[in-house]
């Protein structure tokens, strides 16, 4: 590996969060309820169907009132980009109204102005696991075609409002997760064990159409918009050299590439059509859907946390802990405290695979290590966290990103996940921390909400200042 390297000029260094994991203020200024408000245990468990006081997301880290302080801290690190989401139910509290909530719109005006004040580009996810609860209970979420119209109204509203403030947009967060988590990802109220494949894949189609419509509308409102899809990227390896294991890998890959193929190429690939036919699924296309899908994305963004394996041996088909989209653990890899296997080289591999397949710019919008942090007082009397484990994780992954760029991959930027401590999406707890900034908030609801710079804060600041060259220092 070369000892000197800089990332491309204009590379967008930064970090990512979502509205429902940081904002709090769950009913303030006219905000309606979202699905997250009835998911106190995270997206991997069924909803409670009622509000419970132990839901950390109701208050989160109070970013809604503290965003100026937090954006200033991110600017101190030198952020070029800040990925967040708009809470749909702040703009349309129920989701099916004809007119938006002005106070919700104003909050994001103020937030984006604060980012731009420091030269930070907002990267905005339109729908990030936070479908308005009314749309779930009244319409069964994305299983209902009417959702396309509600989403279109929402998209037009925010595109018009922020057309001079936001350039980079993502249509749906980790859209391929709907296959494993139809409630969290698709707002589908039908219990997963009662949901037919027909209904599930029809919901997928509705999201495809809505996403393509967003691309079309966005480019009409502002031709300079860059609109991307967002998927979970996970390299899948055969557990053994058995050819049957390799076929299992291919089939598992197809479940993910099907989502990027439709977004990037504008049509359903042959292998997807075969899967639908083999499973007795007939997708209903409304007149014009085929043309709408041809509005393809400008770039592909993705989350990367781990790789997995597949096998044809039923006795070895044991799903990995904490894994959102299936897969068998790799016996050659270590794992985080939450069972997510650590594979930096897998990031280089998946970047090459995606770029070879599409020749579209890529954007890493999530990558990071969830860990238990200990807040200490250092020799200077400052409170901090010595998170060398996080620094090591991020450095090893960024070195592989550099290798992928050398391989010829076009990468727009890197926004690590949870740049400030937030409520975990998978487990809804604070003790699983990702940030460069420690937030004094705990799972029992205690804490001052004070912010403290971790050791990784200064490390990442150096990475950004040097445009990545600091990664290669001895």
Overview of the molecule:
Helices cover about 35% and strands about 15% of the residues. It has about 475 residues and is of the alpha/beta class. The protein has a single domain (about 10-470), classed as TIM Barrel, CATH 3.20.20. The strands form 4 sheets. Strands 1-2-3-4-5-7-9-12 form an 8-stranded parallel β-barrel, surrounded by 4 helices.
Short description:
Helices cover 36% and strands 13% of the residues. The protein has 474 residues and is of the alpha/beta class. It has a single domain (12-472), classed as TIM Barrel (Alpha-Beta Barrel), CATH 3.20.20.80.
The CATH superfamily title: Glycosidases
Strands side by side in the biggest sheet = 1-2-3-4-5-7-9-12
* Overall 3D form: globular
Number of strands: 14
CATH structural fold name: TIM Barrel
User: What is the C-level CATH assignment?
Assistant: Alpha Beta
Number of contiguous helices: 14
The figure for the number of domains is 1
Q: Major β-sheet, in short? A: 8 strands, parallel, barrel
H/E topology pattern:
EHHEHHEHHEHHEEHHHEEHEEEHEEEH
β-sheet strand percentage: 5-15%
SSE-based structural type: alpha/beta
CATH architecture: Alpha-Beta Barrel
End-to-end Cα distance, whole Å, is 13 Å
Helix content: 25-40%
Radius of gyration: 21 Å
């Amino acid at each position: 590996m070369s000892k000197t390297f800089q990332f491309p000029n204009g590379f967008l260094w930064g970090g990512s969060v979502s509205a429902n994991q940081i904002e709090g203020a769950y009913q303030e200024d006219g905000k309606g309820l979202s699905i997250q408000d009835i998911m106190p245990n995270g997206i991997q468990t069924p909803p409670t169907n009622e509000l419970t006081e132990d839901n950390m997301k109701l208050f989160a880290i109070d970013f809604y009132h503290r965003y100026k302080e937090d954006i200033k801290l991110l600017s101190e690190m030198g952020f070029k980009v800040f990925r967040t989401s708009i809470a749909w139910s702040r703009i349309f509290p129920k989701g099916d109204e004809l007119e938006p909530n002005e106070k919700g719109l104003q909050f994001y005006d103020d937030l984006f102005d604060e980012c731009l004040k420091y030269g930070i580009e907002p990267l905005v996810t339109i729908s990030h696991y936070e479908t308005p609860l009314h749309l779930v209970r009244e319409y069964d979420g994305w299983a209902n075609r009417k959702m396309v119209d509600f989403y279109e109204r929402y998209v037009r509203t925010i595109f018009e409002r922020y057309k001079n403030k936001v350039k980079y947009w993502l249509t749906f967060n980790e859209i391929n997760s709907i296959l494993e988590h139809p409630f969290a990802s698709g707002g589908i109220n039908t219990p997963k064990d009662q949901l037919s494949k027909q209904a599930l894949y029809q919901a997928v189609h509705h999201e495809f159409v809505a996403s393509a419509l967003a691309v079309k509308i966005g480019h009409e409102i502002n031709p300079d918009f860059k609109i991307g899809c967002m998927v979970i990227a996970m390299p899948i390896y055969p557990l053994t050299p058995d050819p049957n294991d390799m076929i299992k890998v291919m089939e598992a890959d197809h479940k993910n590439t099907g989502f990027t193929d439709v977004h990037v190429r504008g049509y359903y690939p042959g292998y997807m059509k075969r899967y639908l036919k083999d499973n007795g699924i007939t997708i209903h296309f409304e007149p014009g859907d085929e043309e709408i899908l041809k509005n393809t994305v400008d770039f592909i963004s993705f989350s990367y946390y781990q790789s997995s394996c597949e096998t044809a041996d039923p006795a070895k088909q044991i799903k990995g802990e904490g894994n959102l989209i299936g897969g068998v653990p790799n016996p050659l890899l270590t794992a985080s405290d939450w069972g997510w296997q650590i594979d930096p080289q897998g990031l280089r591999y998946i970047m090459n695979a995606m770029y070879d397949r599409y020749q579209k710019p890529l954007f890493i919008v999530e990558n990071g290590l969830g860990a238990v942090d200990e807040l200490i007082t250092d020799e200077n009397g400052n409170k901090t966290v010595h998170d060398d484990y996080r620094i090591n994780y991020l450095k090893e992954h960024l070195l592989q990103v550099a290798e992928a760029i050398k391989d010829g991959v076009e990468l727009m930027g890197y926004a690590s996940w949870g740049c400030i401590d937030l409520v975990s999406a998978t487990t809804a707890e604070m003790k699983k921390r990702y940030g460069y900034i420690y937030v004094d908030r705990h799972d029992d609801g205690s804490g001052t909400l004070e912010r403290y710079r971790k050791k990784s804060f200064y490390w990442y600041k150096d990475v950004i200042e040097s445009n990545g060259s600091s990664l290669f220092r001895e």
